[in-house]
TrEMBL record:
It comes from the Bacteria. InterPro entries: UDP-GALP_mutase, UDP-GalPyranose_mutase_C. This is UDP-galactopyranose mutase. Keywords: FAD, Flavoprotein, Isomerase. PANTHER family: UDP-GALACTOPYRANOSE MUTASE. Belongs to the UDP-galactopyranose/dTDP-fucopyranose mutase family. Its cofactor is FAD.
Length: 383
């Protein structure tokens, strides 16, 4: 949608209507009374967190499941201004050796996989007995085998990682698997964060509420380059791919992409939990069923299969040292620009959870506000 522009233009042109851009638009408009134009190439707001109802009337996430979780009270309280919440704790099973077993690996995973009856104390000893000694943890393989040994690594991690990244875990930075915990109890929740909930009426409704301020104008289906020379603005906030901003002058930053295959089935429930991982079989990595996640009641159900691929929309920065070095060249260019602020996953070439993007945007707003207030103090009448 396009709205008329005032003669005096905008204080901020924000490129991208996902979490980073929308949070900054809302903060700038409501706190500083700034005039904001937010532009997105896609025909919708919300970025990858966008949700909508499919032809069957089921609320789905077109870009794969987005499960909100955070330990930050500030982030949760901020988003709570724009949505009510439905408590939800995500659970994931992995299809291994003909069984569907809890992931992250916990006491039940080990007992059921090996036909054992270990206690929490005994499973801790079990992990210690199978763990491989790694002098220096450098790769994703090192992380896992040093915790749970080679067999569990092969059954749960190696195949999944190879599909997801197109690389063996021995070729990937330790950060890829370092975030996955191993539990000695029966806790089968995928996340352990303090706040775990889904927006009651969906993410898109939350974004609509966030962008409802009269100072915010939204332009969808538009490349910012098409309008930036015609619409006056004082400062740009860019949330797109940083290499694209600089016309790939140092080469493309490597990403992994995903193909999403959506299906609707004439049954009330397709699988036992929100997500089932397939580390060793099939081309897809996982299947997610939306009704678990949204809490919707419906006689049919919709699922999504995720198939990792090398080409397509950028989703996951590939964590390898040479890619980090390439990003540093773009980062230096970005930091040299005074008229543009780079924020968000793609603009900073980092894999952030949703709450981390919100936190980064709120921190960025604090810096922009300080600069705004400093400029207002220095301004003289007639400026």
């Amino acid at each position: 949608m396009t709205e008329p522009v005032t003669q005096s233009g905008f204080d901020y042109l924000i490129v991208g209507a996902g979490f980073a851009g929308s949070v900054l638009a809302e903060r700038l408009a409501s706190t500083l009374n700034a005039r904001v134009l937010i532009v997105d190439k896609r025909p919708h707001i919300g970025g990858n967190a966008y949700d909508c109802y499919d032809d069957a009337g089921i609320l789905i996430h077109p870009y794969g499941p987005h499960i909100f979780h955070t330990n930050s009270k500030d982030v949760f309280d901020y988003l709570s201004k724009f949505t009510r919440w439905r408590p939800y704790q995500h659970r994931v099973l992995a299809s291994v050796d003909g069984q569907e077993l809890p992931i992250p690996i916990n006491l039940d995973t080990v007992n059921r996989l090996y036909g054992l009856n270990l206690t929490s104390f005994q499973v801790e000893e079990f992990f210690a007995s199978v763990a491989e000694k790694v002098e220096q943890v450098r790769t994703s393989e090192d992380v896992v085998v040093s915790k749970v040994g080679r067999d569990l690594y092969n059954k749960f991690f190696r195949g999944y990682t190879r599909k997801q990244w197109g690389l063996d875990p021995s070729e990937l930075d330790a950060s890829v698997t370092a975030r996955v915990p191993t539990r000695t109890n029966r806790d089968d929740r995928y996340f352990a964060d303090t706040y775990q909930a889904m927006p009651l009426h969906g993410y898109t409704r939350m974004f609509e509420n966030m962008l409802a301020h009269p100072n915010i104008k939204v332009m969808l289906g538009t490349d910012y380059r098409e309008i930036m020379d015609f619409i006056p603005y004082r400062h740009m906030i860019y949330t797109g791919p940083v290499d694209a901003f600089f016309d790939y002058k140092y080469g493309k930053l490597p990403y992994r992409s995903l193909e999403f295959v959506h299906e609707t089935h004439p049954v009330e429930q397709f699988q036992a939990v929100g997500t089932v991982n397939y580390p060793n079989d099939y081309a897809y990595t996982r299947i997610s069923e939306f009704k678990h996640i949204t809490g919707q009641t419906h006689q049919h159900t919709s699922v999504v299969y995720e198939l990792p691929q090398a080409e397509g929309d950028p989703y996951y920065p590939v964590p390898r040292p040479e890619n980090a070095e390439l990003y540093k060249r773009y980062e230096a260019e970005a930091q040299a620009l005074t008229g543009v602020t780079f924020v968000g996953r793609l603009a900073t070439y980092r894999y952030y959870n949703m709450d981390q993007v919100v936190a980064q945007a709120l921190t960025t707003f604090g810096k922009l506000r300080a600069r705004h207030e400093s400029a207002a103090t220095e301004a003289t009448p007639g400026d």
